[in-house]
Amino acid sequence: MAAAFSSDGEVALRRTLDPAAATPQGDKDEFYEVDRAAAFVRDGGFRKFPDALLADAAAVAARMEEATGAEMYVLGDTTYGSCCVDEVAAEHASAGAVVHYGPACLSPCRKLPVLHVFGRQPLDVGHCAEVFRELYPERQSRVVVLSDVVYAHAMGELEKQLCHEYPNIVFSRVVCGDDPGPTLPGEVRQFGRQFCLEAVEELQDCSMFYVGAEGLALTSFMLTWNRCPFSSFDPVTGHGRRETLNVNRVLLRRLYLVERARDARVVGILVGTLGVAGYLDVLQHLRQLVRRAGKRSYTLAVGKPNPAKLANFLEVDIFVLVACAQNSLLDSSDFYRPIVTPYELELACNPAREWTGNYLTDFRDLLPGACAHIELPPAVPAAEAVPDVSLITGEMRAVHLCDPLAPQPLPGTTVACREQMRALAEISPAATFLESRSWRGLEQQLGKTTVSKAVQGRRGIAIAYEDEGREQS
Length: 473
Prior knowledge:
By secondary structure, the chain is of the alpha/beta class. It is built from 16 helices and 22 strands. It has helices at 3-6, 10-14, 19-22, 28-31, 34-44, 57-68, 87-92, 125-135, 155-162, 216-224, 247-263, 279-292, 307-310, 342-349, 429-436, 468-472, and strands spanning 48-51, 71-74, 98-101, 114-117, 143-147, 169-171, 173-174, 187-190, 193-196, 207-211, 230-234, 239-242, 266-271, 296-300, 318-322, 339-340, 387-389, 396-398, 414-418, 423-427, 460-461, 464-465. The longest helix is centred in the middle third of the chain and has 17 residues, at 247-263.
């Protein structure tokens, strides 16, 4: 689950681009929906327009400039997940709007207008319908059909073939951005999908049929709707199956991480997105939550997280990742410290929130006014706090919230005397940890370093300099 979002980048650095392999079969204008994208530019009156494609980016951008007369910019890289719209890079080019090509998490953006062009991957609708009938022989089965965004264009044809045989089948539709209208009774809006039932409570009695390959989207669906049995059809292989991923074991792993978060004293808040609407609000919400729980927090912007980056922050006991729903569920088994989601940190630090069996991957659901927001309870004096025992360390811990208005010394803080000035200073856990290190980073050493002439440095990339092979031999 973590490969795409948290890799060290070596694969991308060594990968060679094969334009022939990347070019879609058939009409390129139809695959990339150039006419629809051009109309979006003309109707909006945008002057600059980023495009997030690589293999065919130059050709598509040239075709778009010819059709619209607007200036196009190709955004070929992103600091975070490629499923999110890179608003930061677009703003560097003073862009007026973004066309996002390829798979997307459909998280709403904060500023720029966005048009999603998923690409129309081929789907054998007849074979998919046959697999559906094999998986659900009972014609009265209550099934919700979901799909990867690249197959959304074919769901109408699949619905025509199945709706007469299965009266209780429900097809979801892809919705880009937030729908400003009110939610209707029985309507479900999540992960950029929308479908209607007679009542929302009936969802747990439905099965889920997913059209698409195994990936982060399917994993997120299965964790969120973990009471529903899942089946899937992979259009690439042409095989269907009942999903055998043991969701309960995955949930047990996530609940173990919640217990680790309860034991943590220093929390690192990882910024995993700069474009999803509400990310600043949830950062502030998490800082307040950690402070009220008597812990210390540090906000870190490291781009795509990987074990090597996060290992530099040994003083942090646990990390919480603020990212889109598809990139939040990192497998942190290879990391030096665990990584949890905002929902898991709330389970650990908010005594009013209890585990109900429902799992939340969209951090916006936790904000005030959202469907799953729970207010923090009033502060409890430390003397009246009910003690708790850690299930991991076996040590006693207090599970109470501190008064936000009364400044209290946080765990691990000390008072130190600075040199001859006899000034008192509060030392944070990070500063204390840094003092214990034998190496504390580069120092200027002004006046102590011998001045020398500049010499030719190394050439190449950091993981493979051109002279490394000769030095080793």
